[in-house]
Amino acid sequence: MSRTTLDADTLFDEISRTFLRSPNVTTAKMFGGSALKVKNKVFACFYKGKLVLKLPKERVDELVAAGGAVHFDSGTGRPAKEWVALDPSRGNEWRGLAKEAQKFVAS
């Protein structure tokens, strides 16, 4: 495991611990990794060293255009419109963006 992946894994664990203190947030398994759910719907997961979030399509497009993010594809060859995968290079934004995702999914 690369140092960046290890750091990303640690960061996701820290974010998870913070969110699990919130009402209605639980954990689940998704794609063999950890996921965070609010009101029984996934809003964030850690997949292949990236933070994957469910956000409005326009926000996903904005994050991808800024770099360090891609439209998430679970392996089907069809990227999901409302899911973005963020590189560890944007790790300083992970917590805030996860909060956005939690609010989006909870609404």
What does this structure look like?
This protein is α+β, with helices and mostly antiparallel strands and 107 residues long. 37% of the residues lie in helices and 29% in strands. The chain has three helices and six strands. It has helices at 3-19, 57-66, 94-106; strands at residues 25-30, 33-38, 41-47, 50-54, 69-71, 83-86. Helix 1 (3-19) packs across helix 3 (94-106). The mean pLDDT is 90.
Entry summary:
The chain is of the alpha+beta class. 37% of the residues lie in helices and 29% in strands. It has helices spanning 3-19, 57-66, 94-106, and strands at residues 25-30, 33-38, 41-47, 50-54, 69-71, 83-86.
Secondary-structure blueprint:
Elements: H1 3-19, E1 25-30, E2 33-38, E3 41-47, E4 50-54, H2 57-66, E5 69-71, E6 83-86, H3 94-106
Antiparallel strand pairs: 1-2, 2-3, 3-4, 4-6, 5-6
